[in-house]
Write a structure and sequence with these properties.
This protein is mostly helical. Helix content is about 70%, strand content about 0%. The chain has one domain (about 1-55, about 65-155). Strands 1-2 form a two-stranded parallel ribbon. Pfam families: VanZ (PF04892).
């Protein structure tokens, strides 16, 4: 259902990515001093990740795990959506922990764990795919970089103590 909507409106994922790139650092900078709100938003940003990757679907699997290497482009709707899916959580985790490298690695690890669950639990009707992992990982790296930008912006705009 989500994939069908994205196929019908191929501009949605690139537009969401552009919006995150433009507004993410400013929103993250504002959130830098609001740890509780940032924590809640981080949890909320993980809901779509769980829903789109782990909720069982009714389909027959032809292979449990596909090993292929493709990178997301606007024409590859599903891969682009996988990239966008991990940008906000990584950005928010970077702002919360103030550790961009940790956030990027956490995104890579979470994506790997999701693919492992998909491979080991065929009953959920999802198959693991290395392109999903690379797309999610790239999204996590972009999110961590945006989070780093947000922290830099927060330091630059915070009032200097007298």
């Amino acid at each position: 259902m989500i994939t069908d909507a994205l196929l019908d409106h191929k501009w949605l994922s690139p537009a969401a990515l552009a919006l995150l790139v433009v507004l993410g650092p400013f929103a993250g900078s504002w959130l830098a001093t609001r740890r509780r709100l940032t924590s809640w938003l981080l949890v909320l940003s993980l809901v779509p990740v769980a829903v789109t990757t782990l909720v069982p679907v009714d389909r027959e699997l032809y292979e449990l795990c596909a090993v292929q290497w493709s990178f997301p482009t606007p024409a590859r709707v599903e891969l682009m959506a996988n990239l966008v899916l991990f940008v906000a959580p990584a950005l928010l985790l970077t702002v919360l922990t103030r550790r961009p490298l940790l956030a990027g690695l956490a995104g890579l690890g979470l994506s790997g764990a999701i693919e492992l669950v998909q491979a080991l639990v065929p009953a959920i009707g999802r198959s693991c795919d290395t392109t999903d992992w690379t797309s999610n990982g790239l999204g996590a790296v972009i999110g961590a970089a945006l989070g780093w930008g947000a922290l830099w912006l927060a330091r630059r705009t915070s009032p200097v103590p007298s």
